[in-house]
Amino acid sequence: MKFLISVTAACLSLVVASPSFAQDAQPDFTDKALIARGAAVATAGDCAACHRAVEPSGPQYVGGYEIASPLGAIVAPNITPSKSAGIGDWSFADFDRAMRKGKRRDGANLYPAMPYTDYQGVSTADMQALYAYFMHGVKPVDTKAPETHLPFPFGIRMLMTPWNWMFRSDKPFKATETLSTQAQRGQYLVETLGHCGSCHTPRNVLMAEKSGEALGGGDIGGWHAPNITSDPISGIGGWRQDELVAYLRDGRAPGKGVAAGGMAEAVEHSLQHLPDADLEAIAAYLKASDPIRNPDEKRPAFAWTQARPIKLAAYEPGNGTDEASYADSSTTDGAFLYAGACASCHGRDGKGTKDHFYPPLVGSVTTGAVNPANLIMTILGGVDRKSGVGHAFMPAFADQMSDAQVAAVANHVLQRFGRSQTSVTATMVATARAGGPEPLLLKLMPWLMGLAALALAVVAYVSIRKSSGRKSRVG
Ligand code: HEC
Ligand code: HEC
Ligand code: HEC
Q1: 456-469 residue pLDDT tens
Q2: Which CATH fold topology does 301-433 show?
């Protein structure tokens, strides 16, 4: 009895003591300087890119925006401090668990469309600042974002539990000791808040980042996020430090390439707002990262600098014998299409304008790549990116050109200005339009489901046999 009482007392004292202990260790979340630091951490983490309203002009962090995943659309929730629609009544522990372990407040798993496997390594100080900002620096908005409904069986959030066992680590971030202090800061930003690997690292069959191939190049919604390791041929080893910094800050590095697609968003919402010291640190880390080489690549993508233009004058209305092609909007003559749709900005010779406002198509990572994904996606989707150096805008041609036409103009560009061994087919364009190749997981799904059904049938058969066997013995 005495023992029981003392245990109860000990438990009680623990219950009473632990919250105050936890609070002691926590900062004052209403502190102005902490909130301001949290705003900067949120920028580095690019929370706004996903947790935005459907309308780009909508309130910040209100959610509702659908993130296209190969398994279906995943809706980003409202993370404003609204108590009814957002995370207003979350404790720091709830927030920390969502960010690092991928758990909702009710304990259900989040889908890794929320990059918690990367945020896992965020420092405690940064996480506290982030929480202070979301609780006290963001305006609460009481609009709930719609629920996510993925097709069966992916709608079962419990499926993520074994996935987390396999692919989520609890290890705190640890910088590589041999790196300079500057590169270590860059490594922290790249591997945690910047979640660069969520696009730039290839994924395995179960769609987890392949740990041995960090930053080796990944596919994302039709785009290819290139290899950004230090390899001089397949990666960014041939980029100067200042070119990398310019690319991250402005979205363009003359003589290398421009940022479109998801990279344009990362530049617009996050990277251009980082302090220069952080951009320098990221560049320093990329240049010091472990190189990964693709054996198919023999020279850097930006090193195809020889233009081989044809005389486009012959293709201009009134000059040529082929005027009929102009009356036919379905022409699949790449030279015609280039003269009509591209030359006005990129030049007949593909050299763009001197100031690179209209960039050259020679000596560009997009036209010199082995993988033409980004060339196709740029033609389909155009470029729309605002940064300190202005508004980069190229119209999207998805609605104006058929798959065969996009392929024809892409091949003209490759033949004349880029890596002529790369080629594009109408089927590749159709796949890109549909959001990129299906991941293996989805391709295997009918097969896996068949296997699961078979396993269920066997279990059912065995248990029926067992129970009917028992019955007959009893009866
Ligand atoms: C690449 C897109 C993406 C980025 C970047 C991102 N999130 Fe998320 N986040 C999501 C998605 C999608 C979900 C919901 C996933 C689900 O439904 O399983 C989510 C869920 C959450 C949740 C859980 C909310 C709830 O109601 O359960 C919190 C909290 C959160 N994110 C905070 C953040 C913060 C803070 C940042 C920036 C440091 C951030 N997220 C960056 C996509 C993103
Ligand atoms: C949402 C996906 C996404 C995220 C997150 C992302 N990138 Fe990218 N990145 C891309 C895509 C797609 C491209 C190709 C863009 C193009 O060619 O228009 C790219 C291109 C680049 C390039 C140019 C490389 C080349 O050879 O063309 C660099 C450098 C780069 N990213 C660095 C980073 C860094 C550093 C981070 C993290 C701070 C990051 N990216 C985060 C998708 C992403
Ligand atoms: C109205 C002007 C305009 C037209 C027309 C136009 N573009 Fe562009 N293009 C741009 C701008 C602006 C950029 C992005 C510049 C930046 O990001 O700083 C761009 C970027 C590109 C890039 C990426 C270059 C790189 O280095 O990564 C490619 C490839 C490209 N355009 C191809 C085409 C093709 C092919 C056509 C015709 C089907 C075309 N463009 C039509 C203005 C145009």
Answers
A1: 777 778 877 877 76
A2: Cytochrome Bc1 Complex; Chain D, domain 2 (1.10.760)
Name the range with the highest mean pLDDT among 62-71, 358-367, 431-440, 466-475. 358-367
Distance in angstroms (rounded) separating the CA atoms of residues 90 and 87 = 5
| pLDDT, tens digit (0-9, with 9 covering 90-100), for 308-343 | 887 766 666 555 545 555 556 788 999 999 999 999
Q: What is the pLDDT of residue 151?
A: 83
pTM score: 0.90
Q: pLDDT tens, 5-35?
A: 343 333 333 333 344 344 457 999 999 999 9
Q: What is the DSSP string of 5-73?
A: HHHHHHHHHHHHHHHHHHHHHS--TT-HHHHHHHHHHHHHHTHHHHS--SSTTSPTT---PEEEETTEE
Q: Report the candidate in 313, 273, 291 with the shortest Cα–Cα distance to residue 227.
A: 291
Select from 445, 411, 448 the least CA-distant residue to 429.
411
What are the extents of the domains in the chain?
27-167, 181-288, 301-433, 445-475
Where do the H-state alpha helices sit in 77-235?
A: 92-101, 116-119, 124-136, 160-167, 181-188, 197-200
Closest CA to ligand 1's atom 14: 76
For ligand 3, say whether the CB of 375 is within 6 Å of any of its atoms. yes
Q: Which residue has the higher pLDDT, 473 or 161?
A: 161
45 in Cβ contact with 193 (< 8 Å): yes
d(CA 31, CA 136): 9
How many Å apart are CA 216 and CA 142, to the nearest integer? Answer: 41
What is the CA(350)–ligand 1 centre distance, in A? 41
* Same topology between domain 181-288 and domain 301-433: yes
Exposure string of 257-267, with b = 16+ CB inside 10 Å and e = fewer, is bbbbbbbbbbb
Q: How many C-beta atoms lie closer than 10 Å to residue 413's C-beta?
A: 27
CATH class of this structure's domain 181-288: mainly alpha
Ligand 2 centroid to residue 244 C-alpha, Å: 11
Averaged pLDDT, 40-67: 95
Q: Which of 43, 51, 164 gets mutated to test ligand 1 (max ligand atoms within 8 A of its CB)?
A: 51
Average pLDDT, the chain: 89
**Residue entry with tokens 């006290």:** 136
The reply to whether ligand 3 has any atom less than 6 angstroms from the CB of 87 is: no
Please indicate whether residue 245, judged by its CB atom, sits closer than 6 Å to ligand 2. no
